[in-house]
Amino acid sequence: MAQETQEKSFAEITASCAKVVSYFHLQNGISPVKRLYVKNSSDTERENLRIRISSEPKFLVPCEITDVRLPRRTTAKFEAAVSLSPLYMVALDKRERGEMILEVLDENDSVVASQRFAVDLLAFNECDYAEDPGSLAAFVRRTAELNKLLNLAAHKLQGWNLATCTGYSGTRNNVRNHFAACYSVLADQKFALAEEKTDEGYTFVSDHRDTLASGAATPLELALMLAAMVEANGQNAVISLIGGKWYAGCFLVGECLPNLIGDDAEMLRRKSDRGVSDVSLVCVNDIFGGISFEKAEKSAQATLKKSADAEFIVDIKRARIMHIFPLPERVKGVGGYDLRQSKDYYTDLAPKQLKEYGGDIGGEKEISRVTQWERRLLDMDMRNSLLNFKVSQTVVKILVPSIEDFIENMAEIRSYTLECKPKESLESLDKLTNGFDRTNFLKPFADYILYEYRSRRLRTVFEPRDHETALLRLFRKEKSIQEETGTLTLYLAAGFLKWKEQDPGEDKYAPLFLYPVTISKKGVAAPVYSIEVNTDDLRVNSTLLEFLYQEFDLDMRGLASADLSTPQGVLSVLARIKRETVRFKGWDVLGNVFLASLSFGNYLLWHDVRYKSDRFREHPIVRSLINNRLELPEDAFDLSDRSSDEAYIGKERMFLPISADSSQYSAIYDSLSKSFVLHGPPGTGKSQTITNIIANNIVRGRRVLFVAEKMAALSVVHRRLQNIGLGDFCLELHSNKANKNVVLNHIINTLALADETSEQDLEEKAAEIAVPLEKLQKELDAMHRKRYLGFSLYEAILDYFANENAPDCLNIDSLFYEKLTESSFNNYLDVLTELSLRAKECGDIEKSPFRHIGGFAYDDKWRRDGESVLEIYVLELKHLRQYARNLLPLFNMRTVSLTNAKLKALYDICNLLKLDCVQSYFARCKTVANAKGTVDSFREALGRHRRLTSEYVGKYGAYPSDVPLAEVNDAVKTGNPSRAVKKCIPSSVDKHERTLFLEFLAKCESNRLTLMKRRDELAGLFGMTSADLSGVADRADKMTELYECAQKLYADFDINLFNESCIELTRYGLHRYIGFFISAYDNCEAAAKAFSDVFRTGDFLGGDDIGARIEYVANVQKNLDYIPSWCRYQEMVEKCRQSGFDFILEPLDVGEISAADILSCFKKCVYYNFIKSELYLDDVLCQFSGLTLEEAANKFKTLTEEYERLTRQELYRRLVAALPRTDTTGDHNLERVILMRAEKTNMKGTTLRGLFKQIPNVLNACCPCMLMSPTSVSQFLDIDMDKFDLVIFDEASQVPTCKAVGSIVRGKNVIVVGDPKQLPPTTFFSSDYKDDEHFEVEDLESILDDCLALGMPENHLLWHYRSNHESLIAFSNAMYYDNTLLTFPSPNELNSKVSFKYVDGVYERGGSKCNRKEGDALVAEVIARLKDPAQRGQSIGIVTFNTAQQNYIENELSKLIHKNNLDAAAYDCDEPLFVKNLESVQGDERDVILFSVGYAPDANGKLSLNFGPINQAGGYKRLNVAVTRARNEMKVFSGITGNMIDLNRTDSKGVAGLKAFLEYAERGREMLAISSADITSTRGGIGELVAAELRDKGILCDYNLGVSDFKIDVAVVDPRNKDKYILAIICDSESSCKLKGVKDRVAMQTKILKKLGWNTYQLWTVNFFNNTRREITKIKDVITTLTEKKVLSKKTVREITARYRAPYKSYYCKPMAKAGADYVLNFVNEEKIESRIRDIIETESPIESSVLLDKLLVLYNVPKTAKRAVATLTQYTEEFASFRKEMFGKVFYADKPVETFRPSDTRTQRDLTKVHPDEIVAAARCAVETGLNMRRADVVKEIVSLFGAKKTKAVTEWIEKCIDYGVSENRLMLTVDDMMTT
Fold first, then answer.
1. Distance between CA atoms of 1288 and 1267, rounded to whole angstroms?
2. Which string of b and e fits 1707-1737 if b means at least 16 CB within 10 Å?
3. What predicted TM-score, i.e. pTM, was given to this entire model?
4. pLDDT of 258-268, one tens digit each?
5. Cα–Cα dist 1020/1007, whole Å
6. What is the pLDDT of residue 2?
7. What order of strands is seen across the sheet that includes strand 1617-1627?
């Protein structure tokens, strides 16, 4: 495959494409493009992309992926459905070269990225078996010629007198005979040996017809033909290339190889060995030599013995399973090739039968599921070592003189050292073997061996070197089994029954007595092995007894319950067995003793299933399993989806002694009443959740049974229960935790507990917590609650900022906002969206040629009219312009802009010049000086005359006809009017008004006379014969109009020049140009009118200038095809007007906004108004204060931590209060007596199972929680006892259903906890039993799988806590959990913590099965880390892919660790170094995980795809477990890379996962491509806005950091180190809203981020909206503070220290010198002593018990040698149980909470190892706060300094324990880089 990458623009293509393609790929549906990734490397999301896949030549069917969307900085994975062209590939007769072309195109069809891949196109019958051996399976085909060969083979068998055989209907011999016949038929053809037709590594394979016709064949062609004959006969064939020779084989049984391609010739050898005979194999080269079949078969076996490796082995049956089908036969036809499939030649196949209905429908006898459980549990298969014991490399034989001597000595001594074979030269010891024998020959040495027994030594039969090797193997095996299953499987098997199934028959051996043993190892260079024998649990082999009863009707089952407490009892049982078996021929009892791992635990499980099946059917879950259908009530499925906030509010509050997220809280709540499956992926806090579930159940009086197969799982939960103070009420019964006396003492001690502490007021504290909780929740609810417009305030703020840059030009009335609703807003958006779209179609509205065109119905008629009008209009405008240009010079005008006003003025002038009066005027005007002045004077006089006459008439009536002007003037002067004047005076004028009247009359008459004069002058000028005043006035008006038009026409009007022009134009009659101009103007106006009517332009005719009009109309004419869009736009405009959108249309028309701004302007206004009004009206947000919320958050965190501490105390108090008291009556008092009796007899003669049945009430009260393995449940708990209220299964994926049901039936409800993506059950002993005939009642892999298959209700844990770097879980989350886990990024997220180290090593396939070079590199890495003080503190785990690599690394590592004195650093720590394989690592975790893949190319460079457990079914689960074990770092050592694994060669899901993981380790997160189907549209949120602002200020940052649903809104890059982040900005964003409650957001999230090393800053969206600049400045200040060195002032340091430090108050009382031991022992002084003890405690609280005792000894003058007195004082102190608390193996007495530390002073020097842990934690908090965060090592030093003590190893270890305690209590926090904070 080719792997190439090329970058162009923003996109990068990465693809894995085939280098070679052929018809084989087409036939089998193998895509030439395996993987296609496209990476968007930009910060912008890209949409509407296309991916095009083509080829040159056209051998591919063109393929295109459309509608591609690429989120920013994301790699998307695409499924490219690329197929080869059948027509092209079938016609290929010779090889060609081609190219596959991959391109990414944008929405404009521009190629933004492209990639070309070279490919070889093989001919139809050509193959590339060197690179892909699996392709050979396609050439194993059936043809007509092959049928002829098969017929010959059938005749051959007849000639041999052998029966024919089809498929596997006969015996192995039948199948082999047919294979031999096929071989013989091919040998009869006498083929000539042809050379293989190979060119450039490709091989041509002739078809059967050509091969047979030519009589020549290559070995490959014969191998394929022989394999085809085998397959055609229904048998399974293999083809192999070994040592350059071709081999063909036939499976003689109906099996096939586990993989399509293998290279393990050793496996073929074993399968073909005599005695196994599963495969018959021949070398086809022998066919050419005429070698017989048997000779060829033996020759092949000899070759296999010499060569452990093959070039390859191809399994044809596996190929068919993987859908690799035979190539068709190509037959030349007239029009091309015809293809005939292999199935066409199966002439002997029977036709498919028609379906018939009716008849007998009876079935076979059903096998119940219970029966299957019995079979699987008891395992009476001969692979069971309890029935058929085999001596192997992990079995150690012990020297015994006789079985009787051994049994007697075992009763006396229990501890032994294992020694090798005696070194003394003892006669007959040479006969010793590691096998079975009679021990008679050792009787002479009985004294010696018994002496060794008494010296606590057991001798083995091995020489020193073999002795050490055998014990090391056994030790490792037992250790692995114990860690994996939690059971002690090591036994001394004493005495064996030799038996056989029939006589004669093979001897088999079964152990009789089993002594449980624990083994230990001391030393490295010369290790010493010791064993501890538990004789109390000696048992008879019950499995053997049951087997003898079922198979031989020999009933000795009663011996299983015999008394074996004494040697006599054991020997009695031995004698009984001898007596009962003596009658069986060939049977015997041997006295051998072996040390071996045996599985004995399932017998009791089987016993329950066999004899108590009715109890099983009573339980609904088990009944459902039996009946294969879920039988639960409907309400069982109503699981809750709750918030962890409910722990503090509401009535049904759960107790949370350990913090829990909401997914965990929901499971805790449901545990009180429901049965369900709890999914717990790696690191999601399963053990914390289980601990909380147990606490909440037992405190409510419910009993819980916690079951796990692994001891580690039980220990983790038990340790957590102890840490929260509930350890006294939890009984752990598992392997070595099942000591009878330990259990008894635990019950008695718990029963004696007394609690004097007061009840904790949790209600008050919860109410206190509810206040900040409600405040914080209300703010988020208010921000994200959908409001009346259908969106939240948060969404509105985001949308406002998204449209912030839109123009502010909309003037929207407030009434519009008030009437706005969600539906109307959405409708408006739709309308405006369409308006914007229509406007964009029309271009810039302001500059659009259609801007003044109105709306109309566009159709064909309109188009015809419009086109005509435009043509006419343009033509007329041009005519008019031409006439105007020709006419203007006649008016003595230069070229001017022909505006509409000038054209109109010119048009009016021309029309006036047509008038006769105007022409007469210009004919005479030269004879009159100032002709225009005469006109103006006349018009002025006329106007004045009319005004005066009107005034006169209004005042005095009609104007007199004859007025003597001179007499009137005299009368005015003299005051005496003449008679003529008096006639003119109206009667209405008074005498005293007469003068005024006469003055007015004189004025009127004088103006009239002037007017008459001007009239006469103008009459002559116009050539009038009579001086008619109105006529003259009309002519004067025309002339005035003419001159006014002239003034409009001329820019600088010169009247003389104008007059001359007019005179010339009218001298010889009117100039012709004038008439034509008038006509052109009229035509143009008509055309304009038509244009306005058709185009609805109103008064707009194209512009103010004729040139502009011509250009405009031409532009409209040119863009006439856009008119439909404009019409649609006008329709939208009208619609918008009706909707009241004038406030948008007006600015759009005038160009204040563009079409692109329509929506953004509207949204900006609406969102801004919405935000402001809602912020003002909202009851919560109107009083918003970010500072108040931050204070509430801090208060909430403090209160919840205190509440958690009080919860633990209250849980303990309630459980103690529920214990039965001696002062109350009841059955418990009788049970107390039973307990006391058992204590006195040291449990002799009493089993734990019997004890539990006798004390049910006390047991329920003292041990409401029991932690057990499935085996110990059946062993210790009688099925008829009262049921537990709840059974919890942990790691349920590792518990088989048959083992789980026994625990389930002992409870009412069950919670099945596990992960279906993790390991299935590990089977060390049991056979992989499957009943194929009754598969419907077969169990699935585990109880978890069965419960899921039933459809049980499911809860899911979602938060991932383990990984301190997101890269450690990202692969598993993406590969196996669909990114559903909530993971958290770390500050160094820019660098992956998963690294890859390539080691060019060799996998020793035929030898050690390990990769030494790779192992050495890993060991060197471990040693370097252990030597480095900076890395030594990190725990290390090593995971290998196979046991051989594990053993090699473990051996080499042990040597080097010991050599470098690193034992303490490696093993003497809380989490010692481990080396495990894939099968055993589940449940473990370490800071650093180092992988050794081990597998690599062998010495010949060949890489096998057999990766051990990874290849198996469910192998991917093993890989998932392995890659999720690291907390801080994961490093992969490998001799292979991802590219080296070809998935065409295997269908294993595990191998595919390994390939992906190696690629991820090599290349990082870019390999975690998102499937294109999973890409969804997401918005950046407030984080994107903040990041943009910060970037503008020059601050590097990322937004939405994280690969899961949880995102850090903004992550700021450290300016001092670009490879890490310095600050996480958390906003009240959608990411926060996804977290269910305040506790999740404020407490859990913050705690995790701080643990990961983040500095956090809370940004509130409202604050950012109100004042962005201020918030960005605050962030800048925080960054500045973080990057500057911080030093507290001395005053601050003193204040912090004073808060945490308190003086040490030492109790002093004068010693009582005369008291002594007698005083203490005298009971009369009891009260005084207790009073003194109380005083000491109250004064020096907290005080360690030994310190308290020392003070009492000094006070009462009691020497330490007075043991009785010392014991009495100790007893007195222990009575103060309310003050007493055990912590880390030490007892402290405290009467109040410890919150300060008390340093040593001059009077008291304190021993720091005896200081209360809470004091150490207080000192640590003081050190951290004064030191502004410190490294852990520095904190330890500072604590020593604060106490004024000396640093010793013991002191350091004690402080480290206390710091861990503080971290677990959430009072201290340790980040991933070892920094400590509070």
1. 9
2. eeeeeeeebebebbeeeeeeeebeebbeebb
3. 0.73
4. 788 887 787 78
5. 20
6. 39
7. 1597-1601, 1608-1614, 1617-1627, 1656-1659
